[in-house]
């Protein structure tokens, strides 16, 4: 394999090479110390901290995994992409009158910025923006949770994706900052439905559990101009796939998004459950998971694995 | 590999088609009303407002232009890329201890964010970051202006690139907000040289005048993994070309960067002189110019032309 | 009457003179145009806007009124003083670990400042501070509303003081900004009780209705070093009376507190129902009411009446 | 009227008692450990840290001192009152269009608030406000420093008050945050004169050196409705004396102003040189000095001495 060949567009890896590469990176990641499991709710704090998984799914339909790649975990903010897709489908361009598409330059849960922007969240990847999206779903779908479940199950090709009830309830009980964001938006007239109902959907969605194998498969359409490479079904319009990738590029990795673009250079989304999904247009999806987080809330080992795969395979879009 | 393959497999445009496409887009742009010429200094306010130019330079060495593409204008913030390149070369990774690489989520001249971040600018494309970069140049080069001139002249292949002395002096006299940013960084210990000397370099650099033809040629190396496609000389390491493109993607278009990524999807930098340069990795550079600005400070017609070229040619990196 | 004599400590007004002075000021106030009745809830917006009342109660037990001084109105933020008194009594100095005593320099409902200060309100007169005080009452009194009612009825000498149920319910339904403040404090661990219960007490307390005659009598103890001049009962310690007056001086008039100190110079508290109560240490209390508010949320005519009485009688404490 | 009557009716202190009281308080203050001498410029950092002084000047012309009360020190921000007096005299009410009179709720050198308020400082006691006042002096007086010197020498009755040249120069060299404030105001059009000239006046004024004896005498007119009790000359109008006292009450003690009102209850101004001057209307002035500061920038021992004198003599205006 060489970087140059790869970036010329030809496949550079045979499956065996890919597996060996992923295995090497996975073993290196497992040696990384430090980081903290998310502890703001007990249900998340109890996860076995050393678990680690890496999956690479390419557009030719191959999927290679190492580690705990079949183990399901709380996908948390990664679920924001599912919500966004459904809201874009339902309300179209008018969505962008209620939420911007600009990077925030602020922590993911900043209430200061929301106040300045008069209740209009900076983008749908920060919490306020995702809560607004949840309001769209609750207001415009007769059964918003079912709509999400249908989408997710279709994308990952599994009928048994569920939300973790204990995580869901625990978030409800401890989610006072998110409640503050929702009430502030409501006070600006930017939430239509009942605040408690919106928060219920939002926390439920965050509590979905999936494995890296499922995540890699679910987001492959974003690398394939909107078409699922496994089912060949069009999931979203090509333009919308590019738009979602653009938002992930500027805003997907919390307040480390710029550094991630700088050092890795692909659209990605992370969650405090320790998962990260990276989309490589015209190539495939890398999904990584390990529960211990850096101080930005991104998985420490996950970041390492994504960065190494992207760098060694020359996957930067820039 | 060709861009055609990348964007879906079909050949899109022959050279003649390209000229016709640019001409069409240029004529449409000229019909756009509204916007305001930058008026914060008299020297900029006096430019003929209806001027308009568009250049597309591709990696095969072709360059196609329409409109006032040989007319030089004040490149303003586009010059920040030149400064950044020289600072990266001179101080390496240590640069990133003094300036971050995160999108700002704030106006380009925000002093609030600089205060919160204790004098560490969010990125080198906002004014504070570019002033920090100017401090590096003034402190580490024996003749910082000459260093910039040499680089620019080499990149655009012209020996007669100069700063406009009247713009330079006018900025010095009216640049109190930038002076505030510089003094605030100095108070945090993040400016080494004399503040007046740093500002002199910064304003001088912003006053450089170039045409869209020169800009397109100058930035072609960023689309070509660091190698100038005209001279075949390596300008920066491949990794640094990707890094600069990443910063442009998240932070190049002021507080419209997210929307630009969303709707256009390529790294770009704009200046209040009305110029915009967009880098399409593995394809080429689009440079546009027209003086009237929207309220973000981006050229109204310039934005239109860049977006149309990118969209019609399918150039989004996402 | 002369200013000098007054400020030398002697009574300068005979009762008849006082009545004539108040009548003159009242008539001038009624001629003032402009201002807007609080309209954020229907129940407040429906009040007859031209009503106007002025009462001066002095420490010798006299009380002189003009206008609609027996008409009860929604005292709103004036109630924050009653809540504060009960919280100070119940938890003593430890209260000041949970709320500061500094002027805010921000709108009364600023969520930005509350975020910066990590959920510790700047003072008990802004909404966040008063909600925190409500949390103390709800947590530490078996029947917090009864505790407030008992205090208020004792102070004003009337058994029929009530909260307006319609205003109370209307505030509950529209109080999303206050809910955001409460949830944000809860997320910082600075609210003990259930958020909904705290908000219920807070909104109920704001919905108390009293007349200027009742308000003037109720706050006379603050002008009399803690002793009610009518009943001769000590209400609070002398030091606490001074402390409450100090807080009113720096923070009682919303974001117009500094100007009020500058132009009037006495401790005072205002409410969006249009009431203002001013405490003149060692002299008495001025209570004014008229529903139309200036853009700070202070009664326009009320401000005029208080300022004129204080200025003409030379009552500034400075 | 006498102060004794005001504070409850009983005579409190004979002169001998006063000296004994001050001596007791002074000795207690000297036992207080902790705090830090201002170290942002070398010239201030070198002062002998254990020095301590206390002066009480009453309106009957008495002045009692203990400790290093004849020792001159850098009065720093206390000088803001002198500047304000001259600006009020020269431009009258129009001053308040360029600076507000509201407490800031922010650190004394906040640039964030100045940005929000579009270059209009919150009050003349924070740095931005005092720099604005310096602009008025520089613009409207032919020799602004002489104007200040004349005023100060008249007030304290000494011809040999000077600025410390070394402190002045040192502030100039290190005052980048103040320079940032000045340039930001200039960028908003709220500074008329040359920024360097304004800063030169401002830093010079801060470098004035006076003793507690001189300070107590200088500010006695503020306690006496504008008339100097020593010379019987009217210094400012009665209304202006009250207004200055009002500003000191809400904004004189940096971000500890509210707590100071709460616990002490008199108008006061402090400086980072360790001096504090407290004005007791109709009674006199307390001046204290000791160089070690608490984290708000107020003298630790100075605060103790002022509070004890005010509390034991019952001097709160509230």
UniProtKB/TrEMBL annotation, chains A, B, C, D:
Catalytic activity, EC: 3.5.1.2
GO BP, sorted A to Z: glutamate biosynthetic process; L-glutamine catabolic process
Stretches of the chain forming a coiled coil according to its record: none
Source organism, top-level taxon: Bacteria
Keyword NAD attributed: no
Residue numbers binding substrate: 77, 127, 171, 178, 202, 254, 272
MF (Gene Ontology): glutaminase activity
Gene3D superfamilies for this protein: DD-peptidase/beta-lactamase superfamily (3.40.710.10)
Catalytic activity: L-glutamine + H2O = L-glutamate + NH4(+)
Enzyme class: hydrolase
InterPro entries (alphabetical): Beta-lactam/transpept-like, Glutaminase
Alphabetized UniProt keyword annotations: Acetylation, Hydrolase
NCBIfam families: Gln_ase, PRK00971.1-1, PRK00971.1-2
Assigned protein family: Belongs to the glutaminase family.
Summary of subunit composition and partner proteins: Homotetramer.
Identification of the protein by name: Glutaminase
Origin organism lineage: Bacteria, Pseudomonadati, Pseudomonadota, Gammaproteobacteria, Alteromonadales
